[in-house]
Amino acid sequence: MIDEDRRASLIEHLEELRKRLIRCFIAIAIGTGLAYAYKERLFEILVHPLVMALDTSRDSMVFTGLPEAFFTYLKVSLIAGIIVSLPVIFYEFWMFVAPGLYRRERLVVLPIILISVVFFAVGASFAYFFVFPVGFKFFLGFASESIRPLPSMKEYLRFASIMLLAFGLSFELPIVLTGLAWMGVVDVTFLRKNRKYAILIIFIAAAVLTPSPDVISQLLLAGPLMVLYEMSIWGARIFGRKSGVPDETAERGEEKGEEEKEGKTGKEKKSRRNKKEKKTETVS
Fold first, then answer.
1. Which of 125, 207, 233, 250, by CA, is between 20 and 30 Å from 4?
2. pLDDT at 255
3. What percent of the chain has pLDDT over 90?
4. CA distances from 162 to 49, 76, 101 (A)
C-alpha cells in the first residue's frame, strides 16, 4: 500500500514537472520569436566592443558559410528569448520546488535566487564593458599590413557567449561560499585560513578565463574575485551556522522519529490491552 502511494506521488510529481517544463519552453519560444524581430539590433549590441576596437575603415565582420548569418541571428534570438523568459522560468521552478521546502528554507531560497541573478548580471556586464575592450585591443594588435583580421559572426558569438557565461558564474562566488557556510560545510576560520590558496586559484582561473595573457586583463578579473572572496567571508560571518547550533532539519528528523516511536509504542500498548480484555471476557 505504501509502495502504491509512493508510486502515485512520484507520477503526480513527474506530471507536474512535465507541465511546468512545457510552460517554460512555450515562454522561451515566444521570447525567441519576439527577439528575432530585433535580431540585427541585438547582434549590434553584442558585437559593439569588437566594432569599437576594429578599424572599421578597413576591417569588418564576415560570415564564411551561406547559412552562418541566419543561424547566428537565430542563436542570438534564442539567448535573448531565454533571458526575457527568465521570470516565467523562475516562477515555474519556484512553484515546483517550494511545496517541498520548510518555511524557513522558503524564506532563504527565494532571496538567494534573486541575488544570484543580480550577481550573474554584474559579472556579465563587467566582462562586456571592461574585459572585452582590453582583450579585443590585444588580439587586434597582431594585425599588420599583410595580416588583416576577419572575425566571423559565428566565432564571435561563441567566444562572447562563453566569456559572458564564465564571468557571470565567477561572480557567483560569494553566493556559493555563503551558502556552504549556511549549510555548515565551511566557516569563517576555514575561509580565512585558506585565503592564500584561494588567491592562487583565483589568479589561475583569471589566467584561463581572460582572453589575453597580459597582466592587466588578468588583474581585471582577479581583482574583483578577491573582493568577492572577502565578501564571502563576511557573508559566512553573518549567515554561517554558529558552532554548537544543531541542524534544524536533523532536529526535525529526530523529533519525527521520536513521534513515530511514541506512536508505535502506543499502538503496541493498545494492542496488548485489547488482547488482555478479550482473554478476560473468554474466561468469564
1. 250
2. 47
3. 20
4. 15, 13, 33
Q: Determine contact, residues 235/177, Cβ cutoff 8 Å.
A: yes
CA distance from start to end of the chain: 39
Q: Which three cell numbers stand for residue 112?
A: 538567494
Residues in the chain, overall count: 284
DSSP type of residue 142: T
Q: What is the pLDDT of residues 274-284, one digit of tens each?
A: 665 555 555 44
- Other beta carbons within 10 Å of 164: 21
Cα dihedral value 9, 15, 16, 18, nearest 10: 150
Statement: the pTM of the whole predicted model exceeds 0.90: no
| DSSP codes, 223-265 | HHHHHHHHHHHHHHHHHSPPTTPPPHHHHHHHHHHHHHHHHHH
238-273 confidence digits (pLDDT tens): 887 766 555 554 445 544 454 455 555 555 555 566
DSSP string, 23-83: HHHHHHHHHHHHHHTTHHHHHHHHHHHHHHHS-TTT---B-SSTTHHHHHHHHHHHHHHHH
What letter represents residue 213's amino acid? P
